[in-house]
Amino acid sequence: MTGVPRYRGRFAPSPTGPLHFGSLVAALASYCDARAAGGEWLLRIEDVDTPRSRNRIADGMLATLGAYGFEWDGEVVRQSERAALYQVALDSLAARGRIFACACTRRELESMPLGAAGERRYPGTCRSGVAAGRKGRARRLLVTGEAIGFHDRLQGWQEQRLDRDIGDFIVKRADGVFAYQLAVVVDDAAQEITHVVRGADLLASTPRQIWLQRQLGLPTPSYLHHPVAILPSGEKLSKQTGAPPLDDANPLPALVRAWDFLAQALPPAAPASVAEFWQWARRAWAPTALPPVVMLPVPR
Ligand code: GLU
Questions:
Q1: Hey, which of 202, 209, 236 would you mutate to test ligand 1's pocket, going by the most ligand atoms within 8 Å of its Cβ?
Q2: Residue 1, pLDDT score
Q3: Which residue has the higher pLDDT, 3 or 26?
Q4: Are the beta carbons of 222 and 153 closer than 8 angstroms?
Q5: pLDDT tens per residue across span 246-271
Q6: 294 confidence band (pLDDT: 50, 70, 90)
Q7: Can you list the domains of the chain with their CATH numbers?
Q8: Residue from 198, 236, 240 to probe ligand 1 pocket by mutation (most atoms less than 8 Å from CB)
Q9: CB-ligand 1 contact for 224 (6 Å cutoff)
Q10: 48 lines ligand 1 (CB under 6 A)
Q11: Is any atom of ligand 1 closer than 6 Å to the C-beta of 23?
């Protein structure tokens, strides 16, 4: 026995606001997938750029998850307490000459063409040094033209060429905050996550994370990106687009709605309680029934 778990999943919300229907879908999908496999489910608060001030929001999220009947394994991990780990990873990449300082401002990069991932491709401006008189505050990771592919359990084969689609990407921001891409890779490995189940809005980030895993000598988990809820305008449901917070006092209707959104079979008789819902959901979870699309309209 190696001691490596068979299935360890996680839910990793950012405390930008209270949990809403879109977050519930992500929590439910990752939780059911883990529990149906007899696996563990860990919680990580991704507050890398939102330290103490967001503690209240994070605590509210935990209260909501508790009210909805989610049961997590182990201690909740908070990224705001883990900068030292991210720095070790950055140092090891830097020691191997994979990192460079970048002085470009967002404004300067605004006119760059969009890559296939829908993000501005970094043109390599500071690769061989910052211009005289400028200071390189951000740190970028070098990428190559190698195709980075992976099999998504729902979306099928995915592939990017980071040089063409993304460019060298930021691992530490000019304000000193570690980038999501680095933090998530370090944490998924540190928490020995074997299965990542999350929204398809992160599909285009996965090749960057796999690239980082390879550079750091870390294992690549299995990935499933479920459809995310969008509004009639086509925007992702989020706090910014006005998603109402989940009601801690009335979990059952939202749980059933999220379950239905994921095209999962409802029990013959509507569940009468949260406990009844979970009894059904843990057994009935069928990843093969998930719609293989990246977005779906939010149900009325
Ligand atoms: N913190 C991210 C979010 O709330 C999720 C990151 C992940 O699941 O990898 O969108």
A1: 202
A2: 47
A3: 26
A4: yes
A5: 999 999 999 999 999 999 999 999 99
A6: very high
A7: 8-83+188-297 (3.40.50.620), 87-172 (3.90.800.10)
A8: 198
A9: no
A10: no
A11: no
pTM for this prediction: 0.96
Check residue 62 and give its pLDDT. 97
1 vs 278, more confident: 278
How far apart are the CA of 272 and the centre of ligand 1, in A? 31
At residue 223, the pLDDT reads: 98
If you search the block for the tokens 């740190």, which residue do you land on?
139
